[in-house]
Amino acid sequence: GRVLTTYQSHGGGKGPAGLDLMRWRRTVRPGDFTEWTPEQTFPVGAGVSYSNLFRLGAEGGRIYNFHRGLGYNPNYLVSTDDGATFTYGGRLLRWPRPVGEPLATGIDGGRPYLKYVQSGDDTIHFIATDDHPRAYDNSIYHAFIRAGKIHHSDGRVIAPLSTTGESTVAPRDLTTVFQGDAQHVAWMCDVHLDRAGHPRIIFSVQRDGAKGRGVRDIKIDGQDHRFYHARWDGAKWLVHEIAHAGSRLYAGEDDYTGLAALDPQNPSVVYISTNADPKTGAPLVSTADQKRHWEIYRGLTADDGATFTWTAVTQNSTTDNLRPIVPIWKDARDRTILLWLRGTYRRYTDYDLDVVALLPRL
Questions:
Q1: Residues 6 or more apart from 137 whose CB is under 8 A from it?
Q2: pLDDT of amino acid 336
Q3: For residue 87, how many other CB atoms are within 10 A of its CB?
């Protein structure tokens, strides 16, 4: 019943000493968040970014920390003592910087992006891109881990989970959810399970940017993003474009959007951040300051994700509303907390943002 938290700096020397050095602490007593154990760090040289913690009861309570690590690829750490210590587990996927790949842009590369969600006591689902979208015309893939093996969406075994620093599995070896190309470049936003235990995904797609791919044309790249919804129905993936996501957040990261989130308590609900009308794509210009801003919308589907109706959560703002998150609330009443960032986002290292929330009635 105690809490384990991990955190680290990312990609630069402005934060705490130790580049991408995993740090963690635990609460001393269950239910008491006022006292924590001393900070621990993973050995120097083992870079860790984007930590994702899961505890599997079917494996005796083993805790996994899936992260970006060796080779800028997804790896995992393991703890068998409730987070008191961690050891290196292995590399999940292998994807070196692509050379001569038809879908590669020639800019950067060699770093898949992943998101994960746990199912019961024995399974971890994950979705992946090929790479950073500036480096590759990304697709979206899915697989799940159970009993030490990586499986396709339909349960077929792909390969054993690697227990070394090498892996034979690349993102494209997983089940393809969405096939990308130069005019449809994908990046995931969120993944959760519906009431049948099947994964649902929301992701963004940069549209019509082929002319600027690989040359970073500031006038062309990142001006038209869309949100897509994907649902596994037990036999196949059903994928639909559901909303306009607007323009990029800033030039140079032309695939950065306001992002979107699924409600894990209600699979019929999604939240998006967009600076365009979700249905028409028209720019959202605030009547308060006559400027274009990102606003939060709530989407509701009555046909399992094929179409959505949209209701504004914020509107006519004087600042931007970005990156909604709906935490998992393990409660029979299925309450929903909606969190997002409000303020100014100039770059990923330069922002002035508050964390704000809409809380449920108790």
A1: 103, 104, 105, 180, 181, 182, 184, 185, 213
A2: 87
A3: 10
